[in-house]
Amino acid sequence: MKKEYLREASDIVKDFLIYMQNVQEKSKTTLNVYYVDLRMFFKFMKKRRGLVGAEVDLKDIGIKDIDINFIKTIDFEDIKSFMTFCMEERGNRAAARSKKCSVLNTFFNYLTKKVHLLKENPAENIDFPKKAKVLPKYLTLEQSIALLKSVDGEYKERDYCILTLFLNCGMRLSELVGINMNDIMENNMLRIFGKGRKERIVYLNEACNHALQEYLKVRPENAEDKNALFISKRNKRISKETVQFMVYKYIDKIGLGEQGYSVHKLRHTAATLMYQHGNVDIRVLKDVLGHEHLDTTEIYTHLSSKQVQNAINANPLANLI
What is the spatial distance between Cα 150 and Cα 248, in angstroms, rounded to a whole number? Predict the structure, then answer.
């Protein structure tokens, strides 16, 4: 956990973050979202309660003094006012406001059901803003092949293996960099740990197996981290940043550098290729991707529907009215 959390947050917020880190095993990224959203909420509440002057800027308001007595005064109307503030004053879109609703609900649920400091969760019945469905961006089959063929250089075996795993298995960036040597299992299986350290098994196809074996032939034997599968040029476990830079490099090499593709888009690509070209059942795809809820995976069925719509619109008779 970042030191500024411990230095700037109140004891009750720190206890929550520690619980989410140690018990719920949330990632550093998730903890940061929790902290930033709670900090904004309590800054807003202190101003709403008149504890600071109207002229005081939000960035100058501290939350170290927030305690359970203050929190007990918060009700449903306060939550609604905060959501209105986020929309009208901060310009937060539905997705950002929905995330804030989720954070507040999680925090108050912790105080209510885990440590029993509150009798009721004031955020429990808040309506989450409806997020517009945005179809994920992905590489076509031809672009995916071009990306793999573009790999070269000193670390070509490693880079090729990483891209192959992304495009075939649909794993997250954090899952890939966290792979250890002992996660390579018999019978073409690979153990990875997803969100909340949830373990799942990925089955490696022929392309993945071949790429992995080629990389293992050249993997540094003097690596500082003996457990890490993928090693950086400094002989340490490869970092997320290094993988991101590498992916951007090859994306740019095939002429797609200015089109918004990223590491996460390779996960979308794998899912889309499996669903559209492999006729993979949506429930099976959910397990492959490590999604907790099926509705998260269903975005790929919308992709297919969009393609059907585009095909109909492409009919030369489409504009004959």
Answer: 12
Contact 86, 101 (CB under 8 A): no
Q: What are the tens digits of pLDDT across the range 188-241?
A: 888 988 777 778 888 888 999 999 999 999 999 888 889 999 999 999 999 999
The separation between CA 120 and the C-alpha centre of its own chain, rounded to angstroms, equals 30
Tell me the two tokens of residue 85: 């503030």
Read off φ and ψ for residue 120, nearest 5 degrees: -135, 150
Handedness of CA 245, 247, 253, 258 (dihedral sign): negative
Closest CA to 259 of 270, 251, 268: 251
Token pair, residue 108, equals 């108050």
pLDDT digits (tens, 9 = 90+) for 96-144: 898 999 999 999 999 999 999 999 999 988 887 776 566 667 788 899 9
d(CA 100, CA 143): 36
Does residue 211 sit in helix, strand or coil?
Answer: helix
Q: Using pLDDT thresholds of 50, 70 and 90, give the confidence band for residue 312.
A: very low
Integer Cα distance of 78 and 249 in angstroms = 47
Contact between 104 and 123 under an 8 Å Cβ cutoff? The reply is yes
What's the count of helices (H) and strands (E) in the chain, helices before strands? 15, 3
Q: Which residues are catalytic?
A: 172, 195, 264, 267, 291, 300
Single out the residue of 157, 181, 131, 138 nearest to residue 272, CA to CA: 138
Q: Which of 190, 219, 216, 217 is nearest to 204 (CA)?
A: 190
Give the containing element (helix H, strand E) for 29. helix 28-48
Say how far apart CA 249 and CA 148 lie, in whole Å.
12
Q: How far apart are CA 164 and CA 62, in angstroms?
A: 47
- Higher pLDDT among residues 273 and 97, named by residue: 97
Query: What is the spatial distance between Cα 313 and Cα 296, in angstroms, rounded to a whole number?
Result: 27
Stated pTM of the model: 0.61
